[in-house]
Amino acid sequence: MSVDFRFDAADERFRDEVGAWLRTNLTGVFADLIGSGGPGAEHELVAERRAWERRLGAAGWIGLGWPQETGGRGLGWARQVIFAEEYARAGAPGRIGHIGEHLLGPTLLMFGTPEQRRAFLPGILKGTQLWCQGYSEPDAGSDLAAVRTRAELRDGQWRITGQKVWTSLAQVADWCFVLARTEPGSERHRGLSYLLVPMDQPGVEVRPIVQLTGTSEFNEVFFDDARTAQANVVGTPGDGWRVAMGTLAVERGVSTFGQQMGFQREFDAVLAAARDTGAIGDPDIAARLVEAWIGLRVMRFTALRTLGTPPGAVPGAESNIAKLLWAPWHQRLGELAVDVAGPAATLGGPGEKLSQAQRLFLFTRADTIYGGSSEIQRNVIAERLLGLPRG
Fold first, then answer.
1. Distance between CA 196 and CA 222 in Å, rounded?
2. In sequence order, which residues have a C-beta less than 8 Å from that of residue 359 and are 6 or more positions away?
3. Domain range holding 213?
4. What is the CATH number of the domain that holds 52?
5. Residues 173-228 pLDDT 10s
6. How many domains does the chain have?
7. Of the residues 251, 318, 335, 352, which is catalytic?
8. Does the active-site annotation cover 42?
């Protein structure tokens, strides 16, 4: 299949519009946000990034690809890619509302009722309602079908009990979409439901997890008879696995291009360090730099090739390829960063701030695990894309 990777003149005018808006608005109180809040730094400037999210919403930069009848702008994939690239190129802060916009919103477009869309989409679009994802558990990470958090319908409410882990932004989220077992005695993929649960209630406790970097991007979330309305189930009760898989599929959509621009900035920093230290004269370092540059181009063209799923449609297994490409690539870049830095990369101590290379190396150790391990991605691709038998 032939794919045209070029943007037309109208697209480039849109790129200029996006760039101009970002330059104008990343000033004043928002100037300090430049370069903040990315992977490994989601703890930074939370209140300021919430205000920035509201600024984005007021200007119509949230939900670019959502249908206009839902409050979005109905823009095609090319314009969405351009926004993601320019956002990252400007060094704009890590999005504190990305889980709502890029995961829950598209899920409601695919599976939600009209009432659920009216209730939840406007807050995401305005940047006033933040979400987190309640999937992984201590014994159900990559093997998500092992979920044991349970929910029971009583007196018009779902009552949820269990534990979730590795929950990004749970400490600031207003709502959580929770995969829970609602049919007693059910196993694996059956009997699960996809529930929308308010976080600000007595039955929800959030505990930050301190990572190797010394920061706490992730959290444990404990549900102790937490409650949500009967209507807050997406899809039908017991059909949560299908809905959850739809969410995972859209997780690696257009926002991938913003992620890739972040990778480009990290690569540029490693390249500059290699030149400054003279490490670029090492044939092995030089070869690894070239390999990393090629990897960036492969990720971009692969992502462009797999775009095009319209809002409301469930993507195929092709979306799993993106995770399988970027996770090991990013780990290798972290390893390259500390090799370029040399012995200095091994220095540190209590209270000392990590260098850029150290933080990149430590944070990327988890890349091939969180968001679906590489083993799981390979299984999904083999079974759903290639049609191979379950092994």
1. 15
2. 40, 41, 213
3. 132-238
4. 1.10.540.10
5. 999 999 999 988 888 888 999 999 999 999 999 999 887 777 777 889 999 999 99
6. 3
7. 251
8. no
